[in-house]
Amino acid sequence: MAWDFETEPEYQEKLDWADEFVREEVEPLDLLWPHEQFAPLDETRRKIVEPLKNEVRRKGLWATHLGPDLGGQGHGQLELALLNEILGRSSWAPIVFGCQAPDTGNAEIIAHYGTPEQRERYLRPLLEGELFSSYSMTEPQAGADPTRFTTRAVRDGDGWVINGWKFFSSNAKTASFLIVMAVTNTEVSPYQGMSMFLVPTGTPGVNIVRDVGLYGDAPGQGSHALIHYEDVRVPHDALLGGEGQAFAVAQTRLGGGRIHHAMRTIGLANKALDMLCERALSRETQGSRLADKQFVQGYIADSYAQLVQFRLFVLYTAWEIDKYNDYKKVRKDIATAKIVMPTVLHDIAWRAMQVHGALGVTDEMPFFRMVHGAAVMGLADGPTEVHKVTVAKQVLREHAPTDDVWPTQWLPRKREAARAKFAEYLEHEVGNL
């Protein structure tokens, strides 16, 4: 029977190195360039970031989600989860370690579904960290419901012509290429009638109408594009995974992306808990430390309980993915992690913010960005409510109704069955009275 909560010493040594490396070398980048993670490196940032990337490569921790044939380590989701706990503390860390979203998911699907030519053109430079990509799926009128998508790709000669609108295409303004989901056959179900296309950002007709910012972003700092695809012509070999395969490609990408978000959230929530405890131990009011106040003790206990439960569940789900190598088989637990994730981060960050008092709500502390990030994660890769429906349906499949008027656990019937089972002994006991 295999049941273990320990990490192999060799990999734990790498995790310990990554923990110190991120704290000392990478987290300072968040303070100097908080909005530049997905911008092409200028001369100054290149002199700093490239040596950090090379150090990660020397330690064998670069792009660990991909196999050695693609420049990664093939560590699997469980080892990636343990590493992402550390990387989640810093917005620059995934860039330095070659596993930033959305590029990780995009790299996975190109590796899985791309032709050799597509891998050479798009995947290899993506893995080198020299360019960025964007996943262009959701639409203004449809949100995350692909059955209502209207962006079309129509055959024209030896290629395709794409027309339509896409919304919230993250990092499109700095991306070298986009992965675009479009309707290619209106005569069949949307689940069989959509395809994915690899589209260079500079292709004529790719019009970034505006970059939408999140609350708190400085004007002009938005990175979530509204894109109008207007007679965008691409060759036939721009198809990713073949015609009509968009849903299979999307589920491969989104399944991995959702669990990667959860992994990094653990590290960010743990950072909030650390700040909460430091403040509680450092601040005094009304004759004692905050750590001695029962309300604050409750905050700490609730935060720790939420974080530990979430962490164990995410690690278990990552283990399942490695074991079955089938995102569909683990769909229920991936969706459950996606449901729980925003609440865990929101609650812990909010409590930490409250304990910091007025300082907590200023831009001199990171709590509001964490709280807002929790709200974003409740919508990214599908709204929480949609995932709850998915989980409920999956759970119900594991149960069956009863045709009886009484539930199967109705106590009078079960008590009678228990008496019948042990009638011989009960009669003997009565006879001895």
TrEMBL record:
Domain Acyl-CoA dehydrogenase/oxidase C-terminal: 247-396
Domain Acyl-CoA oxidase/dehydrogenase middle intervals: 135-211
Gene3D superfamilies: Acyl-CoA dehydrogenase/oxidase, N-terminal domain (1.10.540.10), Butyryl-CoA Dehydrogenase, subunit A, domain 2 (2.40.110.10), Butyryl-CoA Dehydrogenase, subunit A, domain 3 (1.20.140.10)
The keyword Flavoprotein belongs to this UniProt entry's keyword annotation: yes
Family classification: Belongs to the acyl-CoA dehydrogenase family.
PANTHER family: ACYL-COA DEHYDROGENASE FAMILY MEMBER 11, MEDIUM-CHAIN SPECIFIC ACYL-COA DEHYDROGENASE, MITOCHONDRIAL-RELATED
Protein name: Acyl-CoA dehydrogenase
Organism name: Amycolatopsis acididurans
Organismal lineage: Bacteria, Bacillati, Actinomycetota, Actinomycetes, Pseudonocardiales
